[in-house]
Batch of 2 targets.
Target 1
Amino acid sequence: MNLSALADLFASNGLRLLPGSHPVPVELYVELPDASIARFTARGRSLRLRHYSPDALTSVVIAAECGCGDHHPTTGPDRVTLSAFATPLTEHVLDGELLFGWTGHEAGALRLADAVPHFFTLLPLLEPSRTLVSVA
């Protein structure tokens, strides 16, 4: 599975994969149907889903390589990310040591296709009223 295929899977479930997501190690930024943001990470022995309000997103301007204005514009592209001051509304964690017997950094070594089912396991915990189509 690659990010493009994941974006299609998410879209079929009413979710939008946001720029800044990456497959290794897994870190996904997802816009939920109510415009709130979910950040899913797989690090160490933990799979973590944090839920943020829609205003937690910010845009960072990436400086051009030389910035001289002759060869490149003085500013580069914008990158969407979470604000450094964003505080999660909720957080849910799967402890890989307790659940799977992981002893090292197994979560961080997960492939995208292996991590995504855990995202869908945690997603319904964000709000009891949130309903999504299950993924087989």
Note: The longest helix spans residues 112-122.
Target 2
Amino acid sequence: MKSFKYIFLFSLFLFSTFSFIEKHPYHVGSVEINHNEKSKTFEITGRFFMDDLENALGKKFGKPFHFNDPKYKTQLNEALKNYSAEYFKLKSDGNFVKINFVGYEEDHESVNIYLESESVAKPKKVEAAVSFLYNYFDDQINIVHLIVGGNRKSEKLSYPNRYTFGTF
């Protein structure tokens, strides 16, 4: 479990260290899936390199996308909503959970994508299919954190593996 924590910290280091390089040698993202006991929803945050996400969206939808350019804001919201619906699925105790796109935020060279589920009772088993950026990179790594009741389960998903689960 500690190794996943170090991998996550290393990936954050990569986000900041390689900001001076236009093309970075690693394709790493992180997805945190946190069950909020108060609202009874899953709060999901995905964090990806901005240029990688622009390229993946461009390939998927056949047109260019540019973060840091206000004229693309509406297109980006719609594209990220559709992209997230295709490349992220969640089950709670064996049942698919409806996921809603909340929005996104640009953070220097990375983008945070925010999603939230419908109301779900505290789960015993959480299953996730996470394949963000798999449509663009065959060496993509997504570090996934499942958090329920303060208990964290983390796993590194390397292309083409997209499935993880945790029992709580």
Note: The longest helix spans residues 2-17.
